[in-house]
């Protein structure tokens, strides 16, 4: 080896060393769902654009992730540089000072393009604390063939009376077809997500202005009576243990006439690879009570946020900017097809005629999302924001405890009156313990 | 006549034992079967027993996750915590079995009572200690925690085995001039091999399956197979076939270990039960 070769080799080694020293590794905590997994598959593109940043993924089940990142952020553990969190956590954590503001995202980011309904839920005192990765509202998905056979027409903005009537007419238990599939599994993000939104659409509220729980109010009683009637008479067997996935499996295999759930389900039930009813699905808005101008205000988004404890905030911000940009949507459209881009975050996506054509559910999704008013979730005066969740930290515990009572009523192990009384008592006790009214 | 009744009873008991065995084994069998289905077949209603098998889920799991890293972490954590527990538990059980004090029974009960405390109750203090000592997401930190949570069971099991060994043998060794170290290592340990082996196997299984601390104290570097499985569970989207493939890959090593050591395990667990 001559001297110049030696010199070149040394220079190369030094350059490699310098590169490895300057490369930063960020840890991203995320949930396991299709859009997140797709992003992990596109990391080569990110690495190409940002060779100085290495991304390490920690993928966990939603509830495990929530517990894990809550512990870390509350104790300042600093284990993560980017968190995937919901719009329930963002305002609470943002107000606590646990998240970094994302107002300086760069000129190309076009923050004004973010759907206002979603961006509002991620903003505290004018500061955006998380960037939305995908968003969803709730709507009615129904079998057009069964509706036609039963002589039922479901309007674009149905009332609960219409839904109950259609459920009755579409039910054919001998053929194992059930008029309606709803969440029955206990949990604040399970049956209580649905019931809280449903109560809003019936004119109810979860708390009055003094933070007194309202689970025994006439509106909630009416909500629960109808819910129980639908589940017991027109729902599938074992409905008390059905969550999103169980209802999805039932709908895809042709067992449900209607399914009211998150708009993200629309892409699954219309995918002919997985769904046996893909060609016979119609969409309508989340129902409302006749005379009540409220469609539940269900609005959820999975967002990327940077904990204040991160020591690699700049690299983390670069990643968040890339993953939630318009360019990322274009990249997914190019690599995976436009119907697979993460929905519900950017206005420009819903102005793209190609997307509107390829995704039959796009228009209804946008309508459902823009109709959701999380700042005024009830027609009555309330001290909280939200829709299918209530914006206080105690809602997780209250929602789960109350949800167990209502799930028991669906299972038949408690009467509706017992369930309501227990729910009200549990919620009151928890609110008193937490020191409300504050 | 009596023989016919006895044969019938034997057949009846055998059939019942098989039925119970199959019932217990069915969830594992179903998980393995589901791992070879497509996602659509995995959630088909009614459930499909006959289907065209596919290896796609295993391919996806292999490409998405670093199985090797998680597997190695599980091996190191379960073996390391078991050895550490044995090093502490053998002398402790010796002392309690052969030199009991007035409060030995209370001490044993107190140790067991620590298992009754819900783990989540001490999550935050332990998390803070780990944060301050730089033990978060480290194998050493997890090894210490796994050792501590399984230590009461290890001491109890060894104490039970040691009590079956006549104290006179140890006394004889002592009279022959054996030191305490020689007494434990060369006299007690060889006689308690079945007990130590089954304790070790049980502890490995417990450490392998531990999911609360291994999920809460790790992120990526020290995460064992429990974290690997958790990454395939999803409340919004159908991932049952992939989750089953990940579960099968995670439980396969411990199933094989259990299969080959079942005689030892049963012998150890029933040691001293019948006199």
Structure notes:
The complex is a heterodimer of chains A (438) and B (275). Chain A is of the alpha/beta class. Chain A folds into 2 domains: 3-135 and 300-358, Periplasmic binding protein-like II (D-Maltodextrin-Binding Protein, domain 2, 3-Layer(aba) Sandwich); 138-298 and 371-433, D-Maltodextrin-Binding Protein, domain 2 (3-Layer(aba) Sandwich), CATH 3.40.190. Chain A has helices at 3-22, 34-41, 43-49, 62-75, 89-96, 116-121, 144-149, 160-170, 191-201, 218-234, 244-252, 265-269, 313-323, 326-336, 353-358, 362-371, 395-411, 416-433, and strands spanning 24-31, 53-60, 82-86, 123-124, 127-128, 131-136, 138-143, 178-181, 256-262, 281-285, 300-305. In chain A, helix 17 (395-411) runs antiparallel to helix 18. The longest helix of chain A is centred in the N-terminal third of the chain and has 20 residues, at 3-22. Chain A is globular and about 65 Å long. The termini of chain A are far apart. Mean pLDDT of chain A is 92; it is low at 14-21. Chain B is mainly alpha-helical. Chain B has a domain at 66-231: MetI-like fold (Orthogonal Bundle), CATH 1.10.3720.10. Helix content of chain B is 73%, strand content 0%. Chain B has helices spanning 2-35, 39-42, 56-64, 67-98, 104-113, 123-132, 139-163, 167-175, 180-191, 193-209, 212-216, 225-230, 240-260, 262-269. At the A-B interface, strand 1, helix 2, strand 2, helix 4 and helix 11 of A face helix 6 of B.
Summarize the structure.
The complex is a heterodimer of chains A (438) and B (275). Chain A is of the alpha/beta class and 438 residues long.
């Amino acid at each position: 080896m001559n001297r110049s070769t030696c010199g070149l080799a040394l220079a190369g080694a030094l350059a490699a060393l310098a590169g490895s020293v300057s490369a930063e590794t960020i840890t991203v905590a995320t949930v396991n769902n299709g859009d997140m997994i797709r992003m992990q598959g596109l990391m080569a593109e990110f690495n190409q654009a940002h060779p100085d940043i290495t991304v390490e993924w920690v993928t966990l089940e939603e509830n495990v992730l929530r517990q894990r990142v809550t512990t870390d952020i509350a104790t300042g553990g600093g284990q993560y540089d980017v968190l995937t969190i919901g719009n329930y956590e963002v305002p609470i954590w943002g107000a606590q000072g646990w998240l970094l503001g994302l107002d300086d995202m760069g000129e190309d980011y076009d923050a004004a393009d973010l759907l206002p309904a979603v961006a509002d839920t991620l903003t505290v005192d004018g500061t955006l604390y998380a960037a939305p990765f995908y968003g969803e509202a709730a709507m009615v998905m129904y079998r057009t063939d069964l509706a036609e056979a039963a002589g039922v027409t479901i309007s674009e903005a149905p009332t609960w009376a219409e839904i109950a009537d259609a459920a009755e007419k579409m039910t054919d238990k001998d053929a194992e077809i059930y008029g309606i599939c709803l969440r029955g599994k206990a949990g604040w993000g399970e049956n209580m997500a649905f019931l809280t939104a449903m109560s809003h659409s019936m004119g109810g509220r979860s708390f009055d202005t003094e933070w007194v729980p309202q689970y025994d109010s006439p509106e909630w009683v009416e909500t629960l009576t109808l819910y129980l009637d639908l589940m017991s008479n027109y729902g599938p067997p074992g409905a008390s243990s059905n969550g999103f996935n169980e209802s999805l499996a039932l709908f895809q295999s042709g067992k449900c006439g209607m399914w009211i759930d998150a708009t993200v389900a629309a892409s699954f039930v219309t995918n002919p690879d997985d769904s046996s009813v893909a060609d016979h699905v119609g969409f309508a808005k989340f129902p409302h009570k006749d005379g009540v101008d409220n469609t539940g205000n269900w609005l959820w988004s999975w967002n990327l946020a940077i904990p204040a404890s991160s020591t690699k905030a700049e690299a983390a911000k670069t990643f968040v900017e890339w993953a939630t940009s318009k360019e990322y949507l274009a990249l997914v459209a190019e690599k995976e097809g436009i119907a697979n881009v993460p929905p519900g975050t950017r206005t420009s996506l819903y102005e793209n005629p190609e997307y509107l054509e390829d995704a039959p559910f796009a228009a209804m999704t946008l309508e459902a999302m823009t109709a959701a008013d999380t700042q005024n979730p009830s027609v009555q005066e309330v001290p909280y924001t939200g829709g299918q969740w209530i914006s206080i930290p105690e809602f997780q515990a209250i929602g789960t405890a109350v949800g167990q009572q209502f799930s028991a009523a669906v299972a038949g192990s408690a009467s509706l009156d017992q369930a309501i009384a227990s729910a009200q008592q549990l919620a009151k006790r928890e609110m008193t313990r937490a020191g409300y009214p504050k | 006549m009596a023989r016919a009744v006895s044969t019938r009873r034997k057949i009846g008991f055998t059939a019942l034992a098989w039925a119970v065995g199959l019932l217990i084994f069915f969830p594992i069998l179903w998980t393995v079967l589901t791992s070879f289905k497509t996602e659509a077949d995995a959630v088909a209603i009614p459930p499909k027993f006959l289907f065209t098998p596919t290896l796609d889920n295993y391919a996806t799991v292999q490409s998405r996750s670093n199985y090797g890293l998680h597997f190695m972490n599980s091996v190191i954590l379960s073996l390391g915590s078991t050895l550490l527990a044995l090093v502490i538990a053998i002398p402790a059980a010796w002392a309690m079995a052969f030199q009991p004090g007035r409060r030995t029974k209370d001490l044993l009960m107190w140790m067991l009572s620590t298992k009754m405390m819900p783990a989540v109750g001490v999550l935050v203090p332990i998390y803070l200690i780990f944060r301050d000592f730089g033990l978060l997401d480290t194998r050493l930190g997890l090894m210490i925690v796994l050792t501590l949570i399984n230590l009461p069971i290890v001491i109890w099991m060894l104490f039970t085995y040691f009590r079956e060994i006549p104290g006179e043998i140890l006394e004889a060794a002592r009279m022959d001039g054996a030191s305490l170290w020689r007494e434990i290592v060369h006299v007690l340990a060889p006689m308690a091999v079945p007990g130590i082996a089954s304790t070790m196997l049980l502890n490995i299984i417990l450490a392998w399956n531990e999911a609360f601390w291994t999920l809460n104290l790790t992120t990526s570097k020290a995460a064992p197979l429990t974290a690997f499985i958790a990454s395939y569970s999803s409340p919004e989207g159908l991932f049952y076939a992939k989750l089953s493939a990940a579960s099968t890959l995670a439980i396969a090593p411990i199933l094989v270990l259990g299969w080959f050591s079942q005689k030892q395990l049963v012998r150890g667990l029933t040691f001293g039960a019948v006199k």
